[in-house]
Structure formats: structure tokens, C-alpha cells
Amino acid sequence: MILDFKEIPEANKGTGLQDTFELFSRDFLSFLGYRIVQDPDRGPDGKKDLIVDEVIPGITSEYTIRWLVSCKHFAHSGNSVKDSDEINISERLKQHNCDGFMGVYSTIAAATLTGVLSGQNKSVIFDREKIESYLLGSLEGHKLACRYFPESFKKYQIENPTPAKIFGEESVICCDYCGKNLLLESEHGNYVMLKEEDFKNDGYQKQYKDIYFACCGGCDSILENKFREKGMYYCGWEAIDELCNPTIWLMRFMAFVNGIQKEQDLSDVAFEKMKKVFINTFPYVARHLTQKEHDRVKSLLFYDLL
Ligand SMILES: [Zn+2]
Question: Domains in the chain, please, with CATH?
Fold first, then answer.
């Protein structure tokens, strides 16, 4: 598990206050798209069930499944939720006019409970693993995780960095053959530097004539052949995903700048492509800008300067 459910405090026994886990459950279900019908307020009987609607749209009308939600926060003891923790399910459904039973648990459901629930017409359990995968699966979910699991989510973020929001659009470096975005985590690709032959000296020209971007599959050799036909030859490469490492990015960038200082020759085309590499990998190595910084940058027409 990545998220530590013990970060959510144990239930306030007898204080009459809403428990944090119930509030979390409400926010979690609302994030999933359920409509909250009854907030988790505690009645005089101590029952603290939540009621949510699942609205299923049809073509001309919609219909609603009303769920009775039971929130159980056993993370601190680590116990699973047993059938004896969820008594009289059918009666509770009838009492609240609900169609189905939903459990939101910070641990897991014991086999005894899933056995009882399999006899129910409609039931669903969100246990800790399901909750975690929903929360970590989207940016909206990250916001919720950050609010209720600040410590464990912070650790997760350090190990799973996402590109900073710096440009209006997602940054892309596409394979020049198949068009796949090589900056996506699932892709691997290189930028390949090309030079022309120097017939007089039986070698290559000093100037880098062009650069192409290629994924690591067959596209690289197809592009290499295509450029060879134009008289441009492979003269070095770098992995694009390596450049998403902040330290390596800075090292490569400094090498690039030093190269310019030493009059390392790049054609205008190659120079523009190197700029493209650094600009589009920058969000991966930079942090998010604060709103104030973002506004300041905008006012400087930063985008136009690039
Ligand atoms: Zn490709």
C-alpha cells in the first residue's frame, strides 16, 4: 500500500462530531461521481450511514440507484470488516429506502462478510486497495489524496514525479516516423544527431546538419536510412527519457551551451531541434510554478521569447 490510512484519525467516539473517515468517504464518493443525498451526520441511535445516488443516464431519461453507504475505519487496528460488523443489512436498506449496500473500508472485507453480501441483490465494497487505485489514478484523485493522506502522498509524489504545469499544453517530442509522444512514460526514444559527409577530408562535416527524434523500435533505423538517402549520417544520440532526470538534464544543457561557446556548429535546423528538446523536457525537471510566478511569467510574454 502507498497511502497510509492511519493518517486518517480514529473515530471520535461519543463526541458527536463527524469522523474524518466519514468525511473522506463522502468526498471520495463524490469524486467518483456519486451524488451525496445524506451527509454522514450521526443520529441519536449512533448510526452513521451515508446515502448516495448513482445516476445512470439513458437516451431520453435517467434512472437512479440509491446506495446505503457504511464507512468502517479499522486501519488503526488493522482488522478486516466482518459480517458481525455489518448487521441487519436488508433491514437497513429497507429502512432507508435504498437499492444497494456499499461499504467504504480502510481495511478489507472479511470472507464472512463477502459471503453475506453475495446474497444481496446489489452490493459493492471499496476497500483500501480499490480506494488507493482510484485516488492515484487521476489528478483529481491526487488532490483528494493530498488532503487526507498528506505524508504518504508526499512520499509517493517524490518517487513518482509528474511534469510541472508550465506551458498551456502538454509538452511533446514526437517520433518523426510514427508520431508517438516520446515523453510519455510508456515510450522510449532518442534524438539522433546527423552530419553530412566531407568528401575532401574523407570524414564528416563539422556542422550538425539535422536532428531526428525516433522511438526505440523500428522507427530509428527507418529514419536513419531516410536521412542517409539525403546524405546525412548518424553522428551521435541521446536518450530522451534520460533527459527527464534533473541532474542529467542540466549536464546535457551545459554541454550544449559549452558547445556553442566553443563554436560547435549546428545548422539552424539542428539548433532549433535542440531547443525543442530542452524546452519540452524542462517541465519534467522543474517544479510547478506558483500562481504568482505564473502570472509574472505570463506578463513578461515568456512564451513569445522562447
Ligand atoms: Zn516511432
Answer: 5-159 (3.40.1350.10), 189-299 (no CATH)
Q: What's the gap in Å between 255 CA and the centre of ligand 1?
A: 27
Question: Separation of 216 CA from ligand 1 center, angstroms?
Answer: 7
Task: Give 220 Cα–ligand 1 centroid separation in angstroms.
Answer: 7
Question: pLDDT digit string (tens) for 5-40?
Answer: 999 998 766 665 568 999 999 999 999 999 999 876
Q: How much distance in Å is there from the Cα of 77 to the middle of ligand 1?
A: 51
CA distance 128 to 34: 18
What digits encode the pLDDT tens for the residues 222-278? 999 999 999 999 999 999 988 888 888 988 898 888 887 777 788 899 999 999 999
User: pTM value?
Assistant: 0.69
Q: What ranges in the chain are assigned the alpha helix state H? A: 20-32, 89-95, 111-117, 128-136, 139-148, 150-159, 219-229, 246-261, 268-285, 291-299, 302-305
- What is the distance in A from the centroid of ligand 1 to the CA of 300? 36
User: What is the CA(221)–ligand 1 centre distance, in A?
Assistant: 10
